[in-house]
Amino acid sequence: MSDTIAAGPELDALVAQMVMGLVPCTNSHGGQGRDYLGGRCYASPEDPADGGELPLYSTTYEGMGLVLAEMARRGFLVRIVTLLSSDGDQPVETLGWSVLFTKYREGGASGSGGGDDVRSLPEAVARAALAAVEAQG
What is the per-residue pLDDT across 93-124, written as a single tens digit (0 to 9) for each? Predict the structure, then answer.
């Protein structure tokens, strides 16, 4: 589902709802988040009127750090692999990232990725976190 959405506001909204557990803000007129802060206002379900601007989870390192912290809080371990070029005498170039979240439970480990060969590390982490949460059901 999320693999067809480009990094940016739409992917960030999915991360907010599915990974971070946030909901669109309501304002005093009962409008949803799309009407407040240009659709980038999200809040906790306990107090949907008291939210703030949605972090840029899929495009900034600061937002990525919030996703990593939430996944750690949920008991996931993360493996991040940097995909590098190795073309003889040419300088090494980062080609992309592969991210895997793993959760150990009784009977073994389960893992779910979602950031294979993505050019941006924040995007790879966001996609892998969504995949891991979706896999848990």
Answer: 888 888 989 887 666 656 665 556 577 899 99
pTM: 0.83
Is the CA virtual torsion 5, 10, 12, 14 positive or negative?
A: negative
Structure tokens at 112: 């779910």
Instruction: Give the span between the Cα atoms of 120 and 43, in whole angstroms.
Output: 26
Check pLDDT > 50 for residue 6.
Answer: yes
CA–CA separation, 130 and 116 (whole Å): 13
Give the whole-angstrom CA distance, residue 87 versus residue 98: 20
Task: Tell me the backbone φ, ψ of residue 67, rounded to 5 degrees.
Answer: -65, -45
- The CA R_g of the chain, rounded to the nearest whole Å, is 17
Number of domains in the chain: 1
Q: Which domain, by its residues, includes 94?
A: 2-20+57-136
